[in-house]
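Retro notes (design track)

What went well: tokenization of the new backbones is finally stable.
What didn't: we kept losing track of which sequence belonged to which structure.
Fix going forward: every design gets posted as structure first, then sequence, in one message. First example under the new rule, 241 residues:
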């Protein structure tokens, strides 16, 4: 299945996993909209993706806050205005605050839940009619933290446990409508998550290009088959001493 002239919207596509997915799809000829809360960051990322795509898919940078439903609806209007359709939606934008519950603030809790969970609810609500029109694909980026809890992860675990369950439920809601829904649940990925620098010490981790290749393969899969939940881990993590 070719992806040439398909269209995609990727939230948080300016960095990390979202950037890796956007670059991989654009190289396949997909026209890709990437969102960021900063239009400047989205524009800078779009230029880098254009270089990687070598003239294949078009790139549309958009300013959008996933926590704002009106902002999400406006982004969808921009995508439809540019290309007239939407084939793939990748709900990738995420944030993490990690602290013991004694130290976690209400502001950190709400930012995590509003971004990682409510933001995805807004994403499917704003895009579902467009995806039904193309028999499209809605993909969420959850985490192994969506099945494995850890100390200091109450907000992040809650958001990702919720996202995993939410995605599986809407998969059942939408599959008879022709919309495929899936989630990818990565373990350790070498990204700049929460503004952390990536270094050579991250070489053992999953790379953003690996997730990009995975998404390309998923979108190329015959529509009769749906991997509805994909867990992915580094092959050989360091041995804890």
């Amino acid at each position: 299945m070719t992806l040439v002239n398909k269209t995609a919207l990727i939230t948080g596509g300016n960095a990390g996993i979202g950037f890796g997915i956007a670059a991989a799809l654009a190289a396949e000829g997909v026209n890709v909209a990437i969102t960021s809360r900063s239009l400047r960051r989205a524009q800078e990322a779009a230029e880098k993706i254009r270089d990687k795509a070598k003239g294949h898919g078009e790139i549309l940078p958009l300013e959008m806050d996933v926590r704002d439903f009106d902002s999400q609806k406006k982004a969808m209007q921009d995508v439809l205005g540019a290309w007239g359709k939407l084939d793939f939606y990748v709900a990738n934008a995420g944030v993490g605050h990690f602290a013991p519950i004694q130290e976690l603030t209400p502001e950190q809790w709400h930012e995590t839940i509003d971004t990682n969970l409510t933001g995805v609810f807004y994403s499917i609500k704003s895009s579902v009619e467009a995806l039904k029109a193309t028999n499209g694909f809605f993909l969420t980026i959850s985490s192994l933290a969506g099945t494995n809890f850890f100390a200091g992860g109450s907000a992040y675990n809650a958001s990702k446990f919720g996202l995993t369950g939410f995605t599986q439920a809407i998969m059942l809601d939408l599959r008879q409508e022709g919309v495929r829904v899936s989630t990818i649940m990565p373990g350790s990925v070498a990204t700049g998550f929460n503004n952390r620098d990536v270094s050579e010490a991250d070489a053992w981790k999953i790379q953003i290009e690996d997730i990009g290749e995975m998404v390309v393969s998923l979108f190329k899969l015959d529509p009769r088959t749906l991997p509805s939940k994909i867990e992915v881990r580094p092959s050989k993590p360091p041995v804890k001493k």
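Added context from the reviewer: The domain at 7-232 is CATH 3.40.50.720 (Rossmann fold).
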